[in-house]
Amino acid sequence: MGKHEGERTKRRRSEADSSEREKVEECVQKIKHVESFYEKPPPGLIKELEEKPEDCIPDIPGNEMARNFLAHAPSKGLWMPLGKEVKVMQCWRCKQYGHRTGDRECPYFATGNTHLEHFRVAHEDPMYDILKNQKRRQKEMRVEQLKQLLAEATTDSESSEVSSRKRKHKHKKGKKRKKKRKH
């Protein structure tokens, strides 16, 4: 009986393991189906013609090199089409594209209230507050050090005055004793 029961439990375990594996495989297949379903375009979709960069130049025999250049030009990342740097940003002062407020390219760069401009530049800089706080802390530390030195100097001078008085007093006593001995 022991052999037959052991074999039965082994069969049950192997059947349970195989059923669990099948369930896991079914779940994986469902997930793969959902992922592929959302990645693929719907059936019957009519693709629109995508505009290519070289299509903006007419297809004339003299324009072959320019069209070829644009066809193989990079379209993603940092690049300079036709050797010109492209900055996609707008200036707040002059409302033109290609530079920021405060850049030398701006026509209003040198105009306006220079004091206000220096203030704006200083406060737009994230390091401004950090440097300002650091300078303030250094000044406070220096003042504390000087106060400590001053306090030490006054206590040293007071203690030296007291010690010098004691020496003078002892010196006077010593002179009096010498006079008494001589007489």
TrEMBL record:
InterPro entries: PAP-1. Residues 165-183 have a biased composition (Basic residues). Residues 1-24, 150-183 are annotated as: Disordered. GO terms for biological process: RNA splicing. This is RP9 pre-mRNA splicing factor. It comes from Eptatretus burgeri.
